[in-house]
């Protein structure tokens, strides 16, 4: 029989968690708390292969006050909190910590206002990205943040991870589309920074403390989003080039000739291009015997009226010797067909599973050499491994997919180390757009100096001294 | 005769400042320190009317290590430090504190690198903005940050104040043009965040702690700047509209029709337009009997080729009833002539001195009503006061100039209170682009909540616990 002292701690914990749950129920309402097997399986994971711990409860507050109350209670009880959006992250940033309260933002699924005269929208953190895109469109605007998870991801999660996507080259990251934020701090304080002006230099802009913080410094509850003018369509071309220097030259030429209107510049190396043709059966717009393929897109008010300028840009690129071969989309349907080559990655991933996938960035000038070096290093270390390279190269972002890895490097750790060591040597980032979460924690120091890590820890201590917000993530 | 204890403190201070100066001389070199009357008069003020205290010394380090050494020493001696760039600020952010070491960045006047393949430039904090603009141009690019002080302001100061200027509507604030930063912290720690990628989500982006912090959290020593494609010229029009709603409609129409290519949208209310015609003798491109005048500009690769599209946009605006009258520039010289109306503010300021000048922002939709309310309030309170309204309205930024104030409100305080109370009621900012410095400290709480101010103070305590960096500024 155990000594009484042996039992005291668990009993206190039990009492303590009972008190916590009672307080939470009072704060957010009985029906907004789930426990044990009532917690949906989906709340236990995200789109990565990270596995977290067993949560204490899943809480779904319906407004900012309820989020603040829930955080105040968890803070009082020293209980970890894991904020969850659409759980579409690829870095494990939203998977449960052991014994944590999962704080779902799904109850904050609101569009509060569309101010067409100011070109902005006010939304709740739980609003699905696609709903925001469609509401902007209906109002004659565009909300240009766009990524594969658009139908499931929530804007709060996009903000917390500073999501990137397909059109960063023209419209920036999520950060660049956020005018204002409302955030609840670790102790339940509501910090309203709901700025509606493109220009506001009344002291430091505090919203940048939370954009990209992955829920470790505060919980985003509302946002003021910047809208862009609506677009009527796009011109696009699939351009084959001889090497990366020609690709970079083509981008520079296109940006100059089109006055910075390039909305996407996606590169696909030959290995990717052949793989996507083989796996998807899409017809090749250009022969598959070139080194690199660039998908250039220019969205605009009137795609037909803008086509001559787009074609003139490509003709001049031909004359300058930058282009080996090219196909120009003659309709919006052909624009979509070109994009299906890029979107075909989803099929490649399922055909080659299990794969290991990278989201890295390198200064644009060095991408060509970096890709060559990674390819050579992996060929040497893992001769049987299939690797494909592609990505939002106009933004310095490369993705590579290696796999199946089953019989080659089942944990993927050896492949990761080989790739990230080259990324470090090139002054690149181990996470271009997906964030750090759990998955990339071991590699963070490859892209951030000791002084930067010290400053990140200092901010965490200052804003969340009890360490209850998304503990164990990022740092 | 004073007691010995009465004399001890000054004597220690004397000894202490002798030790400090000896250490600083060793760190940065004898020739880089000036004291007393050797300190140039220009170092004692900026372009505002703020007056600071008497500095202990002016130190001009020649590299980052010397900046770090100087800060480490001042930190050890608990001595305040005031960083100084080109001292062109209008808020008093760079005027001396009593007994402070002035830290001039003029010795860090370097362009380290122009990477044309990545579209970026690496510069020292002391580099003059115009030199950066010209170097970008020579390399076939554009560095689009542009403001009246371009020939004197330093990029480090632009970054510390998150400077705005004429083309924010297309290229953003200084923040949006900074990829990476090197900062020296209060205790002399060098924090290198010299990122070169548009996409980098490897943990929180720390540079935003320092952009717009006005030298209160760290001293910017180097930066990686983002370059835009070079431009060949501009199309521009001066458009008279019946009211603010028509102006806002015109902007929305133009952004849509031109696929977001508007590079400037400056409004001049009738009072400004008449004043600039009277004070400068510039010929009126459009009759001076309309409510508001918009200067619309679209920079681009080839102004001649882009003119038909620009004209079509204006014709459609006419047909939609948005335009009362308009003149379209037929040459780059006429584009400049239109800008001379806007730049004529310099002459108005000198003719009407002493004036009181405002740099405020208001959500775009509310600018028209806000201007009307401010005009009415000032007419009631100060019937003899002349007031003119203009500004970067496309970015939500309004400037207004009131004066001469000599016989009406000599301190300007009554006028300030009247204006800022209306700005507060409209949810606007007391500083759109100039920062807070000393000048706007009394009004900061009009635009930031108590929780925001508490967070700003908390960050200050965490990053600069001794409070030596630009003390008394902003907070």
From TrEMBL, chains A, B:
GO terms for biological process: respiratory electron transport chain. Its cofactor is FAD. One of its GO terms (molecular function) is oxidoreductase activity. PROSITE patterns: FAD_PCMH. Residues 51-230 form the FAD-binding PCMH-type domain. Keywords: FAD, Flavoprotein, Oxidoreductase, Plasmid. It comes from the Bacteria. Belongs to the FAD-binding oxidoreductase/transferase type 4 family. This is D-lactate dehydrogenase (Cytochrome). It comes from Polymorphum gilvum (strain LMG 25793 / CGMCC 1.9160 / SL003B-26A1). The lineage of its organism: Bacteria, Pseudomonadati, Pseudomonadota, Alphaproteobacteria, Rhodobacterales.
């Amino acid at each position: 029989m155990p000594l009484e002292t042996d039992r005291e701690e668990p009993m206190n914990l039990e009492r303590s968690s009972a008190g916590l749950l009672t307080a939470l129920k009072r704060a957010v309402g009985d029906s907004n708390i789930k426990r044990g097997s009532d917690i949906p399986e989906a709340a236990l994971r995200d789109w990565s292969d990270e596995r977290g711990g067993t949560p204490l409860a899943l809480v779904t507050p319906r407004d900012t006050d309820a989020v603040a109350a829930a955080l105040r209670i968890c803070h009082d009880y020293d209980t970890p909190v894991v904020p969850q959006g659409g759980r579409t992250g690829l870095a494990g940033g939203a998977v449960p910590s052991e014994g944590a309260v999962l704080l779902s933002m799904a109850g904050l699924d609101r569009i509060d206002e569309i101010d067409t005269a100011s070109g902005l929208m006010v939304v709740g953190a739980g609003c699905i990205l696609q709903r925001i895109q469609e509401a902007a469109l209906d109002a004659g605007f565009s909300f240009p943040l766009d990524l594969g998870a658009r139908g499931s991801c929530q804007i709060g999660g996009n903000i917390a991870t500073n999501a990137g996507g397909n059109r960063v080259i023209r419209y920036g990251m999520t950060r660049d589309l956020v005018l204002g934020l409302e955030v609840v701090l670790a102790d339940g304080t509501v910090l309203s920074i709901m700025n509606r002006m493109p220009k506001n230099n009344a002291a430091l802009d505090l919203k940048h403390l939370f954009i990209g913080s992955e829920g470790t410094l505060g919980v985003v509850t509302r946002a003021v989003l910047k809208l862009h003018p609506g677009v009527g369509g796009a011109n696009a071309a699939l351009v084959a080039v001889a090497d990366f220097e020609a690709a970079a030259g083509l981008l520079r030429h296109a940006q100059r000739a089109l006055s910075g209107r390039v909305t996407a510049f996606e590169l696909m190396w030959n290995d990717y291009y052949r793989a996507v043709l083989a796996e998807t059966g899409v017809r090749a717009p250009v022969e598959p015997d070139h080194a690199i393929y660039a998908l250039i897109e220019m969205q605009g008010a009137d795609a037909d009226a803008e086509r001559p300028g787009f074609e003139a840009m490509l003709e001049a690129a031909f004359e300058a010797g930058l282009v080996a071969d090219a196909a120009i989309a003659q309709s919006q349907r052909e624009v979509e067909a070109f994009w299906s080559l890029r979107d075909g990655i989803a099929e490649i991933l399922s055909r080659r599973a299990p794969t290991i996938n990278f989201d890295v960035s390198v200064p644009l000038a060095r991408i060509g050499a970096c890709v060559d070096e990674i390819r050579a290093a992996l060929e040497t270390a893992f001769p049987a491994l299939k690797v494909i390279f592609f990505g939002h190269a106009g933004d310095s972002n490369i993705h590579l997919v290696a796999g199946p890895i089953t019989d080659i490097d089942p944990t993927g750790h050896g492949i990761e180390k080989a790739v990230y060591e080259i990324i470090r040597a090139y002054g690149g980032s181990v996470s271009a757009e997906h964030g750090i979460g759990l998955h990339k924690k071991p590699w963070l120091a490859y892209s951030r100096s000791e002084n930067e890590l010290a400053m990140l820890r200092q901010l965490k201590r200052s804003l969340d001294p009890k360490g209850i917000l998304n503990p164990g993530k990022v740092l």
